[in-house]
Amino acid sequence: MTISRRKLEKRRELNFYSDEDYAAGLAKLEASPSEIQKILMRLNEAEDADTEARSDARDAERALCETPPTTRAGALRLLRHLADFLDEDEVVNDLYVGDVVGDAIRNVVALLEREALS
User: Fold this and answer.
1) Which of 18, 51, 80, 101 sits in a 20 to 30 Å window from 29, CA-based?
2) DSSP code, position 68
3) Is residue 77 a contact partner of residue 104, using CB atoms and an 8 Å limit?
4) Boundary (domain end) residue, out of 38, 58, 78
5) 82 plus 45 within the same structural domain
6) Burial class of residue 104, CB neighbours in 10 A (0-12, 13-18, 19+)
7) Under 8 Å CB-to-CB from 40, ≥6 apart: which residues?
8) Local confidence pLDDT in tens for the 118 residues of the chain
9) Residue among 46, 10, 43, 36 nearest 25 (CA)
10) What range does the domain containing 46 cover?
C-alpha cells in the first residue's frame, strides 16, 4: 500500500503507527517510487487536501450559522442562507438541523424582536 507523507504523519500523531512503523514508512517514501506509486501518492495527497478543504468549509459554515447577526440585513441574509441550505442538502442531517439551524433561526428572531421593541 502506498501512503502519503501527510497520512503517515497523521497516523503517527494518532498513535496508529509505532516508531518502527513510522520509520519504515518514511524509508519507503524516501525510496525511489515506481510510476504507479507516484500516481497513487498524488491521488492520496489530493484526497487528503479535498478532505481538509471540506472540513474547513463545514467549520466555516457552522461558524456562520452560530454567529448571532447584529443587523437586520445580516439577520435576513442568515435566514436566506439557512433556507438555501435546507433546499440544497439532499440528506438533511437531523443533528445539524436541530443543533445549528434552530439556534441560528432563534438568533435572527431575537434580533428582529429587539429592533421591534426599540
Assistant:
1) 51
2) P
3) no
4) 58
5) no
6) buried
7) 2
8) 557 777 888 888 888 888 888 888 888 777 767 788 788 888 989 999 999 999 999 899 888 888 888 888 888 888 888 877 776 766 566 666 656 777 787 788 888 888 888 8
9) 10
10) 1-58
